[in-house]
Write a structure and sequence with these properties.
alpha+beta; globular; Nuclear Transport Factor 2, Chain: A; about 25% strand; about 180 residues
Length: about 180
């Protein structure tokens, strides 16, 4: 009974999975999901190489474009828990917080160092599982990031994808954490 009371009193923020326009296919194929993950990886590497070649301002503009096209912030708050954030700014439910995480430079997020600016040269997804329903897809697994020195950083990552009114795949949930390695 206590769980029902807690759920009934929860504040639900606007996020509509029924926002897909009539006639737009909101279903998912596994190929679409894998392509969305690979596109995310390609975008991260592109932001990193852009930063190395053209500097922070150009990389920041590219990162904003990537966030605007890949995430569902225009639909509602995205449940984004980046890998290397700390309390009290652990969660980034708006695009300003996401952009700061990826490229830093925002005084409202002074502890961000710019995850996408770490000189990544390769990003690979290794799914443990892909779960597809009628109007969303969720994945869980590892993402491996390789930097210019050949060092690999692996993170545990969960994504949930939805489609917007135009049928474009968007990230609605993105949870990432460093691997736990027992000593």
């Amino acid at each position: 009974m206590r769980v029902k009371a807690l759920l009934a009193s929860a504040i639900l923020l606007p996020f509509s999975l029924t926002a897909v326009a009539e006639g737009v296919d909101s279903s998912f194929s596994e190929a679409e999901v894998l392509a969305a993950q690979n596109n995310w990886c390609d975008a991260l590497v592109n932001i990193s190489s852009t930063y190395e070649a053209q500097g922070h301002e150009v990389a920041q503009a590219l990162a904003k474009e990537v966030i605007d096209s890949a995430y569902a912030y225009q639909v509602g708050p995205v449940l984004f828990k980046p890998t290397l954030t700390v309390n009290p700014q652990t969660f980034r439910t708006d695009s300003e917080g996401a952009l700061s995480y990826f490229v830093a430079g925002n005084e409202n997020y002074p502890q961000d160092s710019g995850f996408a600016l770490k000189n990544w040269t390769k990003c690979e997804v290794e799914n443990a599982g892909v779960f597809i329903t009628d109007d969303s897809a969720s994945t869980m697994g590892k993402v491996h990031f390789t930097n210019a020195d050949g060092e690999v950083t692996s993170v545990d990552k969960t994504w949930k994808f939805v489609k917007d009114e135009q049928g474009t795949i968007r990230i609605a949930l993105h949870h990432s954490s460093l691997e736990y390695i027992s000593e």
